[in-house]
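Try this one yourself first.
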């Protein structure tokens, strides 16, 4: 693991997870993308197509959001340092502590270390064939939805941190419209399938009300 600036270029632009061509997940990924490109209303674009399995639909979106949010954080990563962000937070009222299978007791971490752990943890889940099977006919585990909820909840915190602490940088590089679109897509998706506890939306409540009408 890189030390110091945890999000070195190499870490920041971690390889995207891709579905293999010819698999159902790949087709679904393309389909989801096509409906977005067709200018379909984001709120309609997230709805489960009539002939599709909800788990497959959720799996491709989770991977897609992971790839996109990872890139968004990457664009501000160099400004998110241990001195600028000594704790993973969303303003003074919201702090997030890290816990996982190894670190059982929630731990206070600088935001960049927290996000690194978060992205690595998600990467591990989505690359685990037992959790995210890529082949048609391989059943999803019973824990699949619970895992997706946890992944999406954690990804949401990256939005919270980036919007509240680094939005000026996103504006400076002209990425505001891009992150807003990604946020809206994410928000409509997780609310459509009730995948994130609404209390998580609290730090961005006003903004969400404004852009996700
Ligand atoms: Zn930061």
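Now uncover the answer:
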């Amino acid at each position: 693991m890189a030390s110091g600036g945890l999000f070195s270029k190499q870490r920041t632009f971690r390889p995207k997870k891709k579905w293999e061509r010819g698999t159902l997940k790949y087709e679904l990924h393309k389909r989801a993308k096509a409906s977005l490109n067709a200018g379909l209303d984001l709120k309609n674009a997230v709805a489960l197509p009539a002939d599709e399995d909800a788990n497959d639909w959720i799996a491709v979106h989770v991977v897609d959001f992971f790839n996109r949010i990872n890139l968004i954080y990457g664009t501000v990563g160099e400004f998110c340092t241990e001195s600028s962000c000594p704790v993973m937070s969303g303003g003074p009222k919201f702090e997030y502590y890290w816990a996982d299978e190894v670190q059982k007791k929630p731990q206070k971490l600088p935001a960049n270390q927290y996000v690194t752990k978060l992205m690595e943890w998600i990467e591990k889940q989505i690359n685990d064939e037992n959790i995210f099977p890529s082949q048609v006919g391989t059943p999803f585990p019973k824990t699949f939805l619970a895992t997706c909820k946890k992944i999406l909840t954690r990804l949401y915190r990256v939005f919270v941190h980036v919007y509240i602490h680094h939005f000026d940088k996103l504006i400076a590089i002209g990425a505001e419209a891009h992150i807003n679109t990604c946020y809206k897509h994410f928000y409509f998706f997780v609310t459509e399938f009730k995948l994130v506890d609404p209390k998580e939306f609290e730090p961005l409540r006003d903004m969400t009300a404004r852009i996700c009408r």
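Discussion: The pocket of zinc ion is lined by residues 80, 84-85, 111, 161, 165-166 (CB under 6 Å). The helical segments are 9-12, 24-37, 42-45, 54-76, 111-126, 144-172, 176-192, 205-211.
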